[in-house]
Amino acid sequence: MQAIKTLNPSVQLVMDLDRNYFAIPVSIPHSQKLTNDKLKCLENNLGLMDIVTVANEAFQKFLQRFIDNRLENANTFVQYLPSLVSRYGYEEMPPLSKNASKKMRIGLIKTSEEDLLSLEKVLFEMRKAFDDKIEFIYFGKPHSVWEVQKLFEEYQVETHPTVSFLDYFEKLNSLQLDVVLLPAIESLFNRHQNHQLFIELSVFGIPVVASIHHPAKAFIKDGETGFIASVVPEWIENLSLLVDDVKTREYLSRTSLKYAWANHSYRSKNLESIIQSFI
Question: At the top level of its lineage, which domain of life is listed (predicted)?
Answer without folding.
Answer: Bacteria
